[in-house]
Every structure is written in structure tokens, then in C-alpha cells.
Specification:
Blueprint lengths: L13 H6 L25 E2 L4 E3 L7 H17 L2 E5 L5 H15 L3 H5 L10 E3 L14 E8 L1 H7 L9 H25 L6 H5 L6 E9 L11 E4 L5 E5 L7 E5 L2 E5 L6 E5 L1 H6 L9 E3 L7 E9 L5 E2 L17 E2 H11 L5 H8 L4
Parallel strand pairs: 1-10, 2-3
Antiparallel strand pairs: 3-11, 4-5, 5-6, 6-13, 7-12, 8-11, 8-13, 9-10, 9-12, 14-15
Helix pairs in contact: 2-6, 3-6
Cofactor: L-ascorbate; Fe(2+)
Family: Belongs to the iron/ascorbate-dependent oxidoreductase family.
InterPro entries: DIOX_N, IPNS-like_FE2OG_OXY, IPNS-like_sf, Oxoglu/Fe-dep_dioxygenase_dom, Plant_2OG-oxidoreductases
Length: about 350
Amino acid sequence: MDCLKEWPEQVVRVQALSDSGLMTIPDLYVRPPAERPSVGNGGDVTSDIPVIELGGLAEGAAACRATIRAVADACSEWGFFQVVNHGVSPDLVARVREVWQAFFHLPMEEKQAYANDPKTYEGYGSRVGVEKGAILDWGDYFFLHLLPESIKNQNKWPALPSSCRETVQEYADELAKLCGTLMKVLSISLGLDVEQLQTAFGGDAVGACLRVNYYPRCPQPELTLGLSAHSDPGGLTILLADDCVNGLQVRRGDDWVTVQPIPGAFIVNVGDQIQVLSNAMYRSVEHRVVVNAAQERLSLAFFYNPRSDIAIAPVSKLVTPERPQLYRPMTFDEYRLYIRKKGPKGKSQVESLKAQSVN
């Protein structure tokens, strides 16, 4: 863990680069040609990402079964879907956007008071991974540990600006409830007991984190990415996308599809831990973020994760002679160390688990 004590190079805020008026981006942000957003289909806007009306869960047996089936199909076919009628108030969504927009527009010296380091990543950051000389993403962020309660109570959110605390707490409570509902839906859709996935995650001792992403204007968006292609290492991700500027792209075969967020919706995606627990019946999917020359972009990603010290492995009921166990057990503490060291690297982490023999 010694390598996670400090960043390998001086951290430069991408927002400061953007505000400086530079016309060309520094070399360390330039992606190899094969990774640039201009490659492939260019990510044409599509409405094909499934949209699911969660209100059906409370509308009688037939509607409930149809909603569960819609979630199962979305997880099997896309790994991504949007949810509407999710129970989180529009007023709260507007307020949480407002407080984080305000933070990223504070003077730089005020934001610097919350600068993070690689030990926990908590606070104001501009890179993920500690490999010296790595290609960097065109974006800044604020990362915060929300659950379990023991972590939050222990550190009392020292990295969180006081102006954000009440709204962030309310938002975290509501999204944790939404994730709890989705975990039940996933369990049922896999033919498991309703609480089985939640129990595998640690019951009430689950983990949760928030990453607020800020993507400044970029003079050469065709050469870089706001966030490198990756699958999420945790369980479920609930994304509140920018309501004005598109940027999220999802891999679909050999192409990248740009997601068009529906007003008032959340974008949900399956993480690596659900892929492991489901024995790859549901798969995490690579996604990335493109940036914009004319407009900045803000998004909030809420990560719902297993308790960090519980070994995660395929649920025994989903392991059969026809579908043998694909992944060896690993705790989330061990698992996330990979991305904290190397940064986002496609699906290389979960695939490395699959490549190893399972006893």
C-alpha cells in the first residue's frame, strides 16, 4: 500500500487548464488513436438504452412481474438502463446539482483545501491511479465515502464542504433506498430469494460512495476522454447525468453508443461485483465519457458496493454443471485496489478473475 501514499507527479487541475485559454491540450491527455472518441461510429445519440418505469413494482402482480422482467432483460442485453418514477424527488435532484455546480465554480484556492490523495481518494481530485507517466483523463472530481455508517461517523466527512453536507446526506439516503429496491429486483430476476444479493453484499453493512464528475470545456475533444473506458468495480451505479450536455457512451459490440438521458431519470448500470455474484448472467459493460469544446458537464455517480471485507463469489444456486463457477472469491478491498493503482482499464480486472482457475 506504500504506493498509495501520494500522487506520482504534481496534480494539475483540468479546470485550470481549460480556464487558461490554451488551444492545444498537453500530451499527457492525448489518447492513442484507437482510443479516441472519433474512432468507430462516433457514438450517435440513441434512444435504444432501455427505459424502465419503476412505478410498476407497486401496481399489482402483473405490472410488478413485467417490471422485473424488463430489468432482467436490460441487465442481460445492455448492462445499462434508465429508470423513471424512481421515488427521488425532483427538488432534491435540483438541489444536489446546484450545490456541486457551486463547488466547482469556487475559486481554485478554496477547492484546493479539499485536495485528495491516493490513500482513500476522498476529496477533490483530478486523476485515478498512481502509475507515473499514465495518460490522464480530461476531468476533475470530488469523491466521498458515504457508507457504511461506521466510516462516515469515524471521519465525519472532513473532506466535504459544509455547504453540501445536508443535501448530500439526504441524496445519499434516497439513493441507498433506490439501490436496495433494485437489489431485490435483481435477486428475484435471477431466481434467488429476494434478499440474497443484499445479504451477499453484507446486509445493512454495505458500502456506498459518491463521485461528482466535472468535465471542463476542452479545446481538442477529439483527442481525449473525460473518463477512460472501464467497467465499474462495485455492485450498482446510479448516475445522475448532466441535464444539458451528453457525454456518457456505452460499448455495444464494436461501437460506442451515446446515451441520451431522459429528464428526471437516473441511469443504472451493473458493476463487476454483480457480474461475479450472478456468475456472468448479468455483465458489467464498458463505458466512457467524451468531452465538449463548447460546454462543461457535471454528473453524479453513486456507487453501491459490497462490504469491503466480505469475499464475493458466484452465488451457489447459479453454479451448475452447465454453467460452472467462473470467478474465484475476492474481497472488495482487494478488488478496488487494482483501479486505485492503475486507474480505469476496461474490463481487465474482472476478466483476470475469470482467467484464473477456480477450485
